[in-house]
Amino acid sequence: MPESNTLAEAANEATAGAAATAEAMALSSEPGMLHDFFHTGALGMLVEGGPFMIPILLLGILALGVIIERWRSLRMVGANSDQLREEVFQMLSEDRVEDALQHTENSTGPVAAVLSTGLRKYLVLRRLNYDAGRIEEQVNNTMENYGVHIVAALERHLAILATVASVAPMLGFLGTLVGMIAAFKNIVLNSGNANIVELAAAGIMVALLTTCFGLIIGIPAYMAFNYFTSVINRHVLDVEESATELISLVSLKTTLENAKS
Predict the structure, then answer these.
(1) Rounded to an integer, what distance in angstroms lies between the CA atom of residue 254 and that of residue 248?
(2) Closest CA to 164 of 228, 227, 225, 74
(3) Which of 64, 66, 68, 56 is nearest to 166 (CA)?
(4) pLDDT single digits (tens) 137-162
(5) Environment class of 59 (CB within 10 Å of its CB; exposed 0-12, middle 13-18, buried 19+)
(6) pTM for the predicted model, two decimal places
């Protein structure tokens, strides 16, 4: 008898546990659980913020994509330009123009690209016995024209970051204004049926969510834009210095060749 009672108690406990599990699963499947999921945390704030949250969220995704793309691209061109210039100009001073050209073509970065363009032009003009007095001018024009394309490649998609940095907070402010208007309208319509303070606090809190998320998107985009701009300006300065030094060296070599002839 004691053993049968123990078995009966175990069966009852198992049945009760199964019933509790089933009840919990039933509660979790109720619409209220889904409602709590979509109205708590960051996701809940996005839902409560209203329709202006959608374009702000899209702007955030767009800015994140641009930040990743620019960071990877600028990281790839971050070569040691000082060492490259020193090696190339040493070869050029030894009249090893082809070796210098080959070295720049095997290197990466904007400095290598502009030096390669100038050296290629210089080598072609020398082989064609071009007027030595105009070689410097031709090489300079070639590098200037190519430098425009280098700057454009470095600044690619930065305009998107600048747009996101300015538009996202503005959308947030606009959403707040629309939400405030709706909140005060709700106060006017329900002034006699509910507490005005509670109506105002709830409406204003929801309205301010768009400003908060707009600034959350706009501030990192603005910081990333300034950072990438500083990196690009450094690369542009390296390109200009390299082009100037190459022109000076070409001018010196053409002067010496004219003196010998």
Answers:
(1) 10
(2) 225
(3) 56
(4) 888 888 988 888 888 888 888 999 99
(5) buried
(6) 0.73
- State how far Cα 240 lies from the chain centre: 26
Q: Contact 132/258 with Cβ under 8 angstroms?
A: yes
Domain assignments of the chain as residue spans, ordered by start = 81-155+236-260
Q: What is the pLDDT of residues 35-82, one digit of tens each?
A: 444 455 555 555 565 678 889 999 999 999 999 999 988 887 766 777
Q: How far apart are CA 250 and CA 139, in angstroms?
A: 9
Rg, the chain, Cα only: 34
Question: In this predicted model, what pLDDT tens digit does every residue of 92-131 receive, in sequence order?
Answer: 888 888 888 888 888 888 888 898 999 898 888 888 877 7
Residue pointed to by tokens 């406990």: 13
Burial 213-248 (b: 16+ CB within 10 A, else e): bbbbbbebbbebbeebeebbeebbebbeebbeebbe
- Rounded to a whole number, what is the largest CA-CA distance in the chain? 125
139 phi/psi in degrees, rounded to 5 = -65, -40
